[in-house]
Design brief:
The structure holds two protein chains of two kinds. In chain A, 40% of the residues are buried. Chain A is built from ten helices and ten strands. In chain A, strands 6-7-8-3-9-10 form a six-stranded mixed sheet, sandwiched between helices. A four-stranded antiparallel sheet of chain A has the order 2-1-4-5, covered by helices on one side. Chain A is globular and about 55 Å long. By secondary structure, chain A is α/β, with parallel strands linked by helices. By secondary structure, chain B is mainly α. Chain B contains nine helices and no strands. In chain B, helix 2 packs parallel to helix 6 and helix 3 (40-65) runs parallel beside helix 6. Chain B starts with a helix and ends with a helix. The chains are: A alpha/beta, B mainly alpha. The interface between A and B is medium-sized, with 24 and 14 residues.
């Protein structure tokens, strides 16, 4: 579904240094890595928002790099993206935000627009929010509106940049459940950047680990977790070990089901 | 050069979207109302007083030489060729241009413009072209109307201060020393000022970066550069059309 070959991008300093990856169709793939490893830039290049210095990005078999504006726009229409800082349109209501691509791009009949908007808002747990102002929403609600807007045209590819950033544990769990539900309902391919490795690893089919602008390893979760590369060990153990230890879902059953110490609490 | 290039790109994008009829008509309508219609009261108020001030300043000379019949010509010459366009240009730059830069800058630093592009919607169609056209129309129409209001202000002040009847003022205005060419001269300036304000304010808004301080800097630079560019282009047009 998404093929990236020898991708380079620099902003004075090199950010992507020969990225190679494959995202198979219909999978939920997690893109992880240390800060400044190039995750968000890679996602933007795949979304067509940044032109790489060199390399190839194919989405659904079509080359995105170097396309003229009209053909690029057609290909970008098959990609939905939600941003880390949400990027909802402040001057529009929740319903207008979600309806925006349907009205502007798809030119659907108004009745169908309303129906699709209501359906997508219901899917993210925001039924009846159509007339609400964006500014009045909580961070988690805004993120869910962003997810609904990205998915309302039912694109075959969905790119999510830190969809759970800044959310409390309950909202984070709901957000990742929502992504799984979206994959099941739309049959889309999801590429998700997240720093919440525990939650992400609970829902991903595959993981891509980025290090210093290159893909260090890609594959099923177990293979990535077992990668012996020092940078992989440092990132995975450094991020996951010190504060809370491994996610309960990744522990052997005997450990996971063991008695909790008095006063212990898992959100 | 980067400044000129940025403005040129913005104006070409607007022209392309207009010719392709891909610009967002709803945004254009909203822009004409919000940026244009709502600016008219302040433009009218300023023009009315400026017309009056011109007469107040020239009143001692008019009285000394008994040249009351030339009041209409004098006020008309100044207003149509110079004061009307430049005053309206500066007012629109201060009110509409700064607003445009601030809005686009905020959209840029909050990634809302990237949000548009991610939805495969061209910001040139949705944001750039409607705003450039709105500002251009506002400047040209606003200048035409402000000229008329300034002349009314001059005529009323002339009657109150010098006892010059409005008919005498009108005769001085239309007695043959002024022509439609003078109106056209002012309108050419208004058109160029409109392009300058629209291009500068849009280009600076779109390249804003660095959060709220970056938006503030963009607004500041945009307003200052617009004002400088208005005076420079005014001088160039006046020089190019000297004797006409």
């Amino acid at each position: 579904m998404i093929q990236v070959r020898r991708l380079y991008k620099s902003f004075g300093e090199p950010v992507l240094r020969g990225v190679e990856l494959n995202v198979p169709p219909g999978r939920l793939v997690g893109l992880v890595g240390a800060p400044a490893s190039g995750k968000s830039v890679l996602l933007r290049v795949i979304a067509g928002l940044l032109e790489p210095d060199a390399g190839s990005v194919k989405v659904r078999g079509q080359e995105l790099v170097g396309l003229g504006y009209a053909r690029r726009a057609r290909l970008m229409a098959s990609i939905g993206m939600a941003f880390q800082n949400i990027a909802l349109f402040d001057h529009l209501t929740v319903g207008e935000n979600v309806a925006f691509p349907l009205r502007r791009r798809e030119k659907l009949a108004e009745a169908e627009v309303q129906e699709r908007v209501a359906f997508e808002l219901a899917a993210v747990g925001l039924s009846g929010f159509e007339e609400r102002a964006v500014q009045g929403l909580s961070g988690g609600q805004k993120r869910r509106v962003g997810i609904a807007r990205a998915a309302v045209t039912r694109p075959p590819v969905l790119l999510y940049d830190e969809p759970a950033a800044g959310l409390d544990p309950v909202s984070t769990s709901r957000m990742f459940s929502l992504l799984v539900e979206q994959k099941r309902r739309l049959g889309s391919t999801l590429l998700v950047v997240s720093s919440d490795l525990d939650r992400l690893f609970e829902v991903t089919d595959e993981v891509i680990l980025l290090h210093a602008g290159r893909v260090l390893c890609q594959g099923p979760l177990e293979r990535v977790l077992a990668n012996p590369h020092p940078a992989a060990r440092e990132f995975l153990e450094g991020v996951r070990a010190p504060s809370v230890g491994p996610s309960p879902s990744l522990l052997p059953a005997a450990d996971r089901d063991g008695p909790l110490p008095p006063g212990a609490f898992f959100p | 050069m980067e400044f000129v290039g940025g403005i040129a790109v913005v104006l070409l994008q607007a022209l392309r979207a207009t010719l392709r009829r891909s610009l967002d008509v709803e945004q254009l309508r909203e822009g004409l109302i919000r940026l244009g219609l709502h600016s008219l009261p302040v433009v009218f108020g300023t023009a009315l007083f400026v017309g009056g001030i011109m007469v107040i300043q020239s009143a001692p000379l008019m009285t000394r030489y008994g040249a009351h019949s030339l009041l209409g010509w004098g006020a008309g010459f100044g207003i149509l060729r110079e004061i009307g366009p430049i005053l309206t240009g500066l007012m629109i730059s201060g009110r509409v241009g700064s607003n445009n830069t601030a809005e686009l800058g905020t959209l840029q630093v909050t990634e809302q413009i990237n949000g548009l592009r991610a939805l495969a919607i061209d910001p040139a169609d949705y944001l750039v072209a409607p705003r450039v056209l709105s500002i251009l129309v506002t400047t040209v129409v606003g200048t035409l109307l402000s000229m008329a209001v300034a002349l009314v202000g001059a005529a009323l002040t002339g009657q109150a201060l010098l006892g010059v009847h409005p008919i005498t003022f009108w005769n001085g205005l239309t007695g043959g020393m002024l022509s439609w060419g003078d109106v056209a001269h002012g309108m050419v300036k208004a058109f160029v000022f409109g392009l300058v304000i629209a291009g500068t304010s849009t280009a600076y808004g779109l390249r804003a970066k660095g959060g709220a301080p970056g938006v503030g800097r963009a607004v500041n630079e945009s307003v200052v550069l617009s004002a400088v560019a208005i005076f420079v282009t005014d001088a160039l047009i006046s020089f190019a059309s000297r004797g006409n």
